[in-house]
Amino acid sequence: MLGRTSDSIARSHTVAIETEEVGHGIINDLAEQREALGRTRERLGETDEELSRSKKLIKSIYRRIFADKFILIGIIVLEVIGLFVVIYWKYLR
Fold first, then answer.
1. C-alpha to C-alpha distance for 69 and 50, rounded to whole angstroms
2. How far apart are CA 16 and CA 23, in angstroms?
3. Buried b / exposed e along 51-75 (16+ C-beta atoms within 10 A)
4. What is the Cα–Cα distance from 20 to 26, expressed in whole angstroms?
5. pTM beyond 0.90, yes or no
6. What pLDDT is recorded for position 4?
7. Section 46-51 average pLDDT
8. How confident is the model over 81-87, as a mean pLDDT?
9. How far apart are CA 51 and CA 78, in angstroms?
10. Sequential DSSP letters for 2-33
């Protein structure tokens, strides 16, 4: 009976050691995953900053396009008015 108890204790001890080794392996894996998540979080922050800069740049481009179109329309209107003035002076007067 003492021999069986000793064998049972030895098996329990072996299982405990194996369980501890698996636990250490899991802890190491979790530590690596934590580091990977940290790096991913940093990259995500950098990407967010780049997107913010890109949005600002796109808004600036849209403003410049709008201003250029407005100036172009103004120039066309002035040329049409000038054309009508020349036609009025040349033919109607």
1. 28
2. 10
3. eeeeeeeeeeeeeeeeeeeeeeeee
4. 10
5. no
6. 85
7. 96
8. 95
9. 40
10. HHHHHHHHHHHHHHHHHHHHHHHHHHHHHHHH
